[in-house]
Amino acid sequence: MILSAVWGGAFTLNKLALNFYSPEFIVFARLIIGTLILFLLLMLIYRRITISLKDWQYYLFMSTVGIVAPFILIVYGQQQIDSSLAGILMATMPISTIILSHFFLHDEKLTRRKFTGFVIAFIGITILVIQDFSNLKINILSNISSELMVMSGAILYSCSAVYGKRFKHTDPLSASTGTIFFSHNDVYIFTHLCTY
Fold it and tell me: What is the pTM of this model?
């Protein structure tokens, strides 16, 4: 529940931050804060850096697909839509995850019960967060590109979750720290391209 609250609260904080900062700065600030916290935890728990450079391909993929690209897409998308709608669109992540898992993970096949459960959950979230469905329809029609950005971010999160299952041998804290460390290169490239 704590993880859900932290993850869900990010959309509200993104929306508030967009009143004062650019999307690029918000993404960079989130990565800096996350990197400092994870490195601190890594040193407190293991007393040393336990990131293995032999898994650099894993870190590169996860940093690009699982962190930087979704962060950028979601923050840019939230410039035009509110945080509640962003939360609704992000609820497509578990649905896309079970579909991707069915095709790419041999031990997580899609069952009727799984699919039914996630559909019911998605409908429930929609009903709880959005009270006026007529207003939702207007927002979707007027800001379709922004909604597609947020949904694309959700799908990329799903891709990284499925890909991450292939690296069960990696310590979770070390993997998270290495991934977010590699993500700074992606942000640098993105911000450099935005200057042209």
Answer: 0.81
> Residues 86, 77: contact at Cβ < 8 Å?
yes
CB 51 within 8 A of CB 114: no
Going from N- to C-terminal start, the domains of the chain cover 23-194
- What sign has the CA pseudo-torsion 175, 51, 40, 35? negative
Q: With a cut of 70, list the residues of the chain below it in pLDDT.
A: 1-8, 49-53, 128-142, 191-196
Q: What whole-number distance in Å separates Cα of residue 11 and Cα of residue 101?
A: 26
Please write the tens of the pLDDT for every residue from 89-146. Answer: 888 888 888 888 888 888 888 788 888 887 887 787 777 666 545 555 555 566 788 8
Cβ of 51: how many Cβ atoms within 10 Å? 21
- Are 179 and 59 a contacting pair, CB within 8 Å? yes
